[in-house]
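Second opinion, please. Please look over this fold, written as tokens:

===
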Amino acid sequence: MRQLLSAWTWASNSIGEHYPLVIAGALPKKNDRFYDDFERYAEELEIKDSVRFIGAVDEDDKAAIYRGAACFVFPSRYEGFGLPPLEAMACGTPVVTTAFSSIPEVVGEAAYLIQNPDDARALGAAILSVVVNDDLSQRLINDGLFQAKKFSWQKTVDETVAVYKKVIGERIA
């Protein structure tokens, strides 16, 4: 989250008035010793006026939030799968994310991938590019919708069952 807020310092002056950075999800409890006060950090970075912390989002409201976004930013470096970028793509939202862990496998070439998640300037430039470049945004939307269709819960079930059958078949043989 700190990385995203730092990246926003590079984009907010150009687009923040019309496109605020919306941070969805519950923040850590303030009395937690590992808590990072992101609202205070946004104030320190002088971007507080263009950042909205909306808190936890009900599952039923996620699609509307994705669809309302000019782009979805996922600056993660450790992911087991990377479901949020896939959800955003399925909703027709262009995605900016990192080329780490399983994320490139999930998003394919349908997202704007940042090679160094510690490079706030590159992340900010990517956000700005996707928001202001209509051709880039539309390409990411189209590619994202296509990429998202490659994944489904039914396909996951079918592939998992196939693995179990193979393992069981090898033990019987």
About this structure: The chain has a mean pLDDT of 90.
